[in-house]
Amino acid sequence: MAKIIPALIVSDKNLYNDFEELKEKFERLQPFLAEFDNWVQIDITDGEFVTSKTNIGLDMLSYFTKSTNVEFHLMIVRLQQTIDKWIELKPKRIIFHIETCTSEDIEIIIKKCKQAQIEIGLALNPETPFSSINPWLEEIDLVMFLGVTPGFSGQKFIPETMAKIGLLRHNRSGIKIEVDGGVTVENIYELKKAGVDIFVVGTGILSAPDIGQAIAEFKSVLSK
Question: Which of 18, 43, 105, 141 is catalytic?
Answer without folding.
Answer: 43
